[in-house]
Write a structure and sequence with these properties.
This protein is of the alpha+beta class and 821 residues long. The protein is built from 15 helices and 47 strands. The protein has an eight-stranded mixed beta sheet, sandwiched between helices. Strands 4-6-22-21-16-19 form a six-stranded mixed beta sheet, with no helix packed on it. Strand 45 and strand 46 form a beta hairpin. The relative contact order is 0.07. It is a single-pass type I membrane protein.
Length: 821
């Protein structure tokens, strides 16, 4: 907040427009009678802003996203299909601010589909044409039943460019390219559009029935010419604007592409324009259109075809035979929203292919933003929540396996990094190459205040020497001051020069206004040139300079003046320059290496405030198991207990012998380890040790450990000793009279019991392994002998001629010899 306050109150801000562009939280007070030493541009979130300016005069434009058009998702019965919402979003952005909003997609049933069936009419496809003619109207009917009820269909055919070396130009071959095979075929052609897309299934059937097979001479076909015309000739083909555009492309051959036309001396590249021309003939419909630039323009490239498909939102379905499947699989990777499937030799599976392709294409969705139209100074990030997903996918606009009725959510975060400097288009589209719908993003930049357009010329509040703009005076030339009340003619020196400490310095050090040659300082500033302030010094515990000093910050050189005392000890500057109590009384003088409060507390005005685990004047004593170097685990005190017990057993002084293992604890031997929770006084059952135990700090920990000699166990409890504030180990005594513990020591296990079973097991396992190996070897030898005998019985010896032998005689005939004639 302090940083934002500093940004908003920058002295270089002199207008409302500059204020709102400085930071999204900066607000401008347009009230005309505001005190001149109060900054008009302030942090809107600061309490001071609301106190200094009425809400009605606060200029604070806010960023937002307004759904200008937001139609509900459509149902099956509605004529207009809506799968994306909202449709239009007005995004109002302020520099540095961010807006978030969501766009949703819902897949509807029976989405309109335009399907154009384009077929290779080379002679090798005659059985496929026969199958299509046999299907006739039922093809469209079955597609309507299995794919979508709202379907329109069109039909076209292609062969290749009627030029050598693609098609024979022999006159007879141009009339009947199938003459050599003694069949009747239609003359060759490039691409022929025979039936426009419509719901007239009878017309589609008739168009297919009127089609005759044709032929060419090379293997690749001119299908790319056909696909380009289908894509760019939208009006002639009959594509609907609100339907999915599918092209079913059937062939059994590869394709010609860009530069192949050079073989026929065609040098002009494909121009990606529509060149369909109406022709009349007995073999085609009267409405048929042909590609009339087939002999003038080269085949389109894959890149051109991709661009045309994307621009016109066309999804191709390549139904090809097995021989060329791999080629079209590669094409699929280059053309988005395309599908490849294997066509039967006679096309009898075409309906299944169309159904599968339609479902596959519709269950995936790849959206995109036209970044080329993104306005200057705008940053956009996004993420996607796909159906049945539990997490968002960052920087992704694609989803798969979208079912009917399922919904996809796209979240956008838009940030304005700068105000635009040009008047370029501020509109972007969010769409997909597989959808006819799109969402329009309309950007509006909030870079100017509403009051900036309301200018009061020669305002009385500006001494009639300037204009009132957003509550502030914009003085005419030769006038200065918050009310334009000062002129340079009334004073010999420049007014601004009198408010500078030097020629190179800023006016009033940017901390005030120069009013007729005198600095009128802003809040918290003082001095002739407003060069000093009471802010900028270190802050301790929420107080500037702590609690014992004042701040003097002149020319950006902050310094705390420590004036307070405690116990007649003056406050001093700490390592950050703030005033604090003297710390010498918080250091243990008896320890030359001591630190303040032993590093276990805080020095609060010469008194140590210890952490909960420590006490003492200097927090030097640990009063909790949590700060001990050893823990209350049995293993930590095992060595001490064994040592003490051994010393007692050997009638030695345990205090002398066990100094090292028991250096971190105190210990006590007892005949019986007491349960101190049952004690009511110092009795035989409750020795004095119980009165010194504090179970609230540490619950007694019972332990037992086997000694190395005799394997007898040592029993001991770990408790917390109140007085020493340390661990106390209560060790059960060794009975010196009997030389035994108070419980029976276990007898050692006879090693024979362990060794004999192990040896016997090894011998038995070895014998079993030998027997198994012998059985396996016998079986293997027998099987190999039987194989050998069978091979010998099957052997048959035959007589043959040496394959490398050549007869010495060879007969040659002169091909030019004409006989006896």
């Amino acid at each position: 907040t302090a940083d934002i306050d500093k940004l908003c109150e920058d002295n270089t801000i002199t207008s409302c427009d500059q204020c709102i562009q400085k930071h999204p939280q900066c607000a401008w007070c347009s009230k005309s009678n505001v005190n001149s030493n109060i900054k008009r541009c302030r942090n809107f979130c600061s309490r001071k802003t609301s106190a200094l300016c009425d809400q009605a005069f606060v200029e604070m434009p806010r960023s937002n996203a307004n759904f200008a058009q937001n139609q509900q998702f459509s149902t099956r019965e509605e004529a207009v299909v809506v799968q994306l919402r909202p449709q239009v979003i007005d995004i109002n952005l302020r520099k540095g601010d961010t807006v978030k909003f969501n766009v949703s997609f819902r897949k509807v049933k029976d989405y309109p589909v335009d399907l154009y069936y384009v077929m290779d009419l080379s002679n090798s496809m005659k059985d496929d044409l026969a199958e299509l003619q046999k299907l006739g109207e039922s093809l469209a009917t079955q597609i309507r039943q299995n794919v979508t009820s709202d379907i329109n269909m069109g039909f076209g055919t292609f062969v290749d460019k009627v030029m050598m070396p693609f098609t024979s130009t022999v006159p007879d071959q141009l009339i009947n390219p199938c003459a050599k095979s003694k069949e009747a075929c239609a003359p060759p052609f490039g691409f022929r559009h025979q039936q426009s897309i419509s719901g007239d299934l009878t017309a589609f059937k008739q168009s297919v029935q009127n089609t005759n097979i044709s032929g060419n001479i090379d293997s690749p076909e001119g299908g790319f010419d056909a696909l380009m015309q289908i894509a760019v000739c939208g009006g002639q083909i009959g594509w609907r604007g609100d339907a999915s555009h599918l092209v079913v492309f059937t062939t059994d051959a590869s394709f010609h592409t860009a530069l192949d036309g050079k073989l026929a001396a065609i040098l002009d590249a494909n121009d990606m324009k529509c060149h369909l021309k109406r022709v009349r003939g007995t073999l085609v419909s009267q409405n048929a259109l042909v590609y009339d630039k087939s002999k003038e323009l080269d085949y389109p490239s894959i890149g051109q075809l991709r661009a045309a498909f994307v621009a016109n939102k066309i999804q191709p379905i390549f139904a090809v035979t097995k021989e060329v499947r791999s080629l079209y699989d590669g094409l699929k990777e280059l053309i988005p929203n395309s599908f490849v499937d294997e066509l039967a030799s006679d096309s009898n599976n075409i309906i299944s292919i169309i159904k599968t392709a339609y479902n596959k294409l519709r269950e995936k969705l790849q959206m995109s933003l036209d970044d080329d139209n993104k306005p200057e100074g705008v940053g956009i990030s996004y993420r996607t929540l796909c159906p049945n997903a539990t997490t968002w996918s960052d920087n992704s606009l694609s989803c798969n396996q979208i079912q009917l009725g399922s919904e996809v959510t796209y979240e956008f975060t838009v940030t304005a990094t700068a105000c635009p400097t040009t008047s370029a288009s501020n509109t972007m589209l969010f769409t997909s190459s597989s959808l006819q719908e799109s969402v329009t993003f309309r950007f509006n930049f909030l870079c100017n205040c509403n009051c900036s357009s309301m200018v009061e010329q020669k305002s009385i509040d500006c001494s009639s020497n300037g204009s009132m703009v957003c509550g502030a005076c914009l003085c005419d030339q030769g006038h200065e001051g918050s009310r334009c009340q000062c002129t340079q003619n009334t004073i010999g020196l420049s007014l601004s020069a009198q408010c500078k400490r030097s020629d190179s310095a800023d006016i009033c050090e940017r901390n005030g206004e120069c009013l007729c040659g005198i600095c009128d300082c802003h809040e918290n500033f003082h001095g002739k040139y407003c060069q000093c302030s009471n802010t900028g010094c270190p802050v301790t515990d929420g107080n500037v300079c702590g609690k014992g000093g004042t701040c003097e910050n002149c020319y950006n050189q902050p310094k705390c003046n420590c004036t307070a005392k405690i116990n007649n000890i003056p406050y001093t500057l700490d390592n950050v320059g703030s005033c604090t109590c003297h710390e010498s009384n918080c250091i243990d003088p008896s320890n030359p290496n001591a630190t303040v409060c032993s590093s276990h507390g805080n020095c609060s005005c010469s008194i140590c405030e210890c952490d909960p685990k420590y006490d003492g004047k200097y927090c030097q004593d640990c009063n909790s198991p949590l700060c001990k170097t050893v823990t209350a685990e049995c293993s930590s005190h095992e060595a001490c207990a064994i040592c003490v017990n051994s010393a007692v057993q050997n009638r030695e002084n345990a205090n002398d012998k066990c100094q090292v293992p028991c250096k971190d604890v105190t210990f006590q031997t007892v005949k019986t380890i007491p349960d101190c929770s049952l004690c009511t006084g110092n009795t035989e059952a409750c020795p004095s040790a119980c009165s010194e135990v504090d179970p609230s700090i540490l619950a007694p920990t019972p332990c037992s450990q086997a000694q190395s000699t005799g394997q007898c166990k040592v029993s001991y409890n770990i408790v917390w000793h109140k007085q020493s504030k340390n661990y106390l180990v209560l060790i059960k005594e060794f009975d010196q009279a009997t030389g035994k513990y108070m419980f029976h020591c276990p007898k050692p296990i006879d090693p024979v019991i362990i060794v004999l079973p192990i040896v016997a097991g090894i011998v038995v396992l070895g014998m079993i392994a030998l027997i198994a190996w012998k059985v396996y070897q016998t079986w293997r030898d027998k099987r190999e002998w039987q194989v050998f005998e069978n091979e010998m019985k099957k052997s048959k010896w035959t007589k043959d001629i040496n394959p490398v032998f050549q007869k010495p005689k060879t007969r040659f005939e002169n091909p030019a010899y004409g006989g006896d004639e």
